[in-house]
Write a structure and sequence with these properties.
About 65% of the residues lie in helices and about 20% in strands. It is of the alpha+beta class.
Length: about 300
C-alpha cells in the first residue's frame, strides 16, 4: 500500500515538473516573438521615398559638380558713345555673329545733338564675358553691374517633381485601362487632367529656366555725347548726301503743297468771285459809257 502511494506521488511530482518546464519554455518563446515583432519595421519605405532619396542624391551630385550647375548670368551697362548710329549697328551685327539675338531695342532723342538707345541682348552663356568686353570697348562705361543667379537647386526640384508626376500619370493610365464603370472612368480622367496640367506647368518652368541659363541677358543704355573739341570727327560728314536729298525733297513737297492750296482756294472762291466779277464788269462798263457821253457833249 505504501509502495503504491509512493509511486503515485512520484508520478504527480513528475507531471508537475514537466508542466512547469513547458510553461517556462512557452513564456520564453512568447518573449522572443514579441521582441522580433517590435524590432521589425512597422512599414517598409515606399517607392516614392526611394525616388525622393534618389533625386536628393542626384541633386547633391549636381550641386557639387561645378560644370553642371545652372547659373543665370545678367549684366547692365551704361555707356557714353560719340557715334550712336554706328555703335548700334556694330552691336546688332556682333550679337548675331555670336549666335545671340536682340530681344528689345528702343531709341530716342533729347534734342538735336543728343540721342539715346536702350537694348536688351541675349547672348550664349559661353560668350557672356567676351561680349561684355566687346561692349566696354565701344565707349566710356559710366556704370557696370554683373550679377548671377544660381538656380541649380530649383532646377533639380522641378525635375524630381516632374518625374514623380509622370510616374503617377502612367499609374493612372494603367488604372483607367482596367476601369469598367462609367463613374470610375470619369473620376480617373478628371484626376488625369489635373496631373497633366501640373506636368505642363513644370515643363514650362523648366523650359524657361533652361533658356535663361543657355542665353545670358545684357541690358545696355547708350548715351550720345558731343565730340571732343580737341580732335576732328570725320563721322560728322556721314549721311550728308542723304540729309541734303531729304531737305530738297521736303522743300519740293512744300512748294507742291502751297500750289495745291492756292488752286483749292481759287476753286473754292468761284461762287464769290463770279458775282464780284459781274459787278466789277458792270461798274467798269457804266463808267466807260459815262465817260463817252461826256466826250460827245
Amino acid at each position: 500500500m505504501k509502495k503504491t502511494l509512493i509511486i503515485v506521488l512520484c508520478i504527480l511530482i513528475s507531471f508537475f515538473i514537466a508542466a512547469c518546464g513547458g510553461a517556462k519554455k512557452e513564456a520564453a518563446d512568447s518573449g522572443i516573438s514579441a521582441e522580433a515583432v517590435h524590432s521589425y519595421p512597422e512599414s517598409a519605405p515606399s517607392e516614392g521615398t526611394y525616388r525622393n532619396q534618389a533625386a536628393a542624391e542626384e541633386g547633391k551630385n549636381m550641386i557639387g559638380d561645378l560644370d553642371n550647375r545652372k547659373i543665370i548670368q545678367n549684366a547692365e551697362l551704361n555707356i557714353d558713345v560719340e557715334n550712336m548710329e554706328k555703335i548700334v549697328k556694330d552691336i546688332e551685327r556682333q550679337v548675331a555673329a555670336v549666335g545671340g539675338f536682340l530681344e528689345e531695342s528702343n531709341t530716342g532723342r533729347y534734342n538735336t545733338d543728343s540721342t539715346w538707345a536702350n537694348m536688351v541682348l541675349r547672348v550664349p552663356s559661353s560668350e557672356f564675358q567676351e561680349f561684355l568686353s566687346f561692349l566696354e570697348e565701344k565707349g566710356d562705361v559710366k556704370n557696370r553691374r554683373v550679377y548671377m543667379d544660381d538656380v541649380t537647386t530649383h532646377f533639380i526640384d522641378l525635375e524630381a517633381r516632374l518625374r514623380v508626376l509622370k510616374a503617377e500619370e502612367e499609374s493612372i493610365l494603367s488604372i483607367l485601362n482596367n476601369a469598367s464603370k462609367v463613374e470610375d472612368v470619369l473620376n480617373i480622367r478628371k484626376e488625369l487632367r489635373t496631373i497633366r496640367s501640373e506636368i505642363e506647368v513644370l515643363e514650362g518652368e523648366l523650359k524657361y529656366l533652361s533658356d535663361m541659363v543657355a542665353f545670358s541677358t545684357i541690358r545696355v543704355h547708350l548715351q550720345q555725347v558731343k565730340v571732343s573739341e580737341t580732335r576732328i570727327d570725320p563721322a560728322g560728314f556721314s549721311g550728308v548726301w542723304q540729309k541734303g536729298l531729304s531737305a530738297f525733297t521736303k522743300n519740293v513737297n512744300s512748294m507742291i503743297s502751297l500750289t495745291g492750296n492756292i488752286v483749292v482756294f481759287i476753286i473754292g472762291s468761284i461762287p464769290v468771285l463770279i458775282p464780284l466779277g459781274i459787278a466789277g464788269f458792270g461798274l467798269w462798263h457804266l463808267k466807260k459809257r459815262k465817260k463817252k457821253d461826256q466826250t460827245s457833249i
